[in-house]
Amino acid sequence: MLQFISHYTEKYSYLDSICLALQGGCRWIQLRMKDATDEEARPVAIEAQKLCREYGATFIIDDRVALVKELQADGVHLGKNDMPIAEARRVLGPDYIIGGTANTIWDVKAHYAAGVDYIGCGPFRFTTTKQKLSPVLGLEGYRQIIIKMRAAHIDIPIVAIGGITKDDIPAILATGITGIALSGTVLRAANPIDEMKHLTNIVNHE
Amino acid sequence: MKVTINNKEHVTQANTVSELAAQLQLPAKGVAIAIDNELKPRTFWDDTILHEGASITIIKAACGG
Questions:
Q1: Using one digit for the tens of pLDDT, what is the confidence trace for A24-37?
Q2: Could you tell me which residues of chain A have a Cβ less than 8 Å from any Cβ in chain B?
Q3: Does residue A145 register a pLDDT over 70?
Q4: How many helices, marked H, and strands, marked E, lie in chain B?
Q5: What average pLDDT score do residues A161-171 get?
Q6: What pLDDT score was predicted for residue A195?
Q7: CA–CA separation, A108 and A112 (whole Å)
Q8: Protein fold of B2-60
Q9: A205: number of Cβ within 10 Å
Q10: Which residues of chain B register pLDDT less than 70?
């Protein structure tokens, strides 16, 4: 599974990036507009959700629990400094996907106990997308977390995130990680649609 | 047939993703399903045939919180 996290460059807006990802075959989109207000994010989210519905893609929004509920998006992704998972679950109820960022097995266990549906786990390596960064995990970090999750019978999907390029994908999935979240690497390609097609092919055939 | 769902082995009589979703009593909202890593839009669930050994991932809003 591939999750695309919206991003912007000089060339592409947030919406452009989502459109390119969908055209490239990605069916799981996270709208992340970290520095925007809800008022600024709302019109983008409405358009992004429309696009995702057209393509049958799952649409989640980073951090903005109230906006997710208002727009009836598919779910929310919560970072470490966002609303706690349990509180988001109380607000949204059982009909929304809630994802949570984890850097350690303790984070995973705490999120699982709080009712999270999937884990975004990273960073795989150093990345420029996020300014505040936890220690990098690498392949061995993922292996250890997967082993401990299985031992604890935690069977929710876990998506790797953070500075991942296409050459990393086979080795990451071989650790038992369920999916890959990508942001910057797609838009930096000369042809982002072809790049996304190539990436979905790699992920879907591992 | 035998399939794996979120890394656990299951035996299912379901032939399609729709049948599997019904069998597992998945809710109408807040669910995403991938077969062999590929996310399947809900509109494709009727037409997506399961095969022996399929690796199925279900992202499901936790029931009851």
A1: 999 999 999 988 99
A2: 1-2, 27-28, 55-58, 74-75, 86, 89-90, 93-98, 115-118, 150, 155-157, 173, 176, 178-179, 200, 203-206
A3: yes
A4: 1, 5
A5: 94
A6: 95
A7: 6
A8: Ubiquitin-like (UB roll) (3.10.20)
A9: 11
A10: 61-65
Domain A2-204 coded CATH 3.60.15.10:
no
Bridge-based pairing state of the strands A58-62 and A28-31: parallel
> What are the residues whose beta carbons fall under 8 Å from the beta carbon of B29, sequence distance 6 or more?
A74, A95, A96, B61
Q: Residue type at A75? A: G
A190: tokens are 């000369």
Per-residue pLDDT, averaged over A97-117, amounts to: 96
Q: Which of B44, B57, B64 sits opposite A94 (nearest CB)?
A: B64
Answer yes or no: are the C-beta atoms of A31 and A53 closer than 8 Å: no
End-to-end CA, chain B: 31
User: And the tokens for B56?
Assistant: 């199925």
B32–A58 C-beta distance less than 8 A? yes
For residue B64, give how far its alpha carbon lies from the nearest alpha carbon of chain A (Å): 6
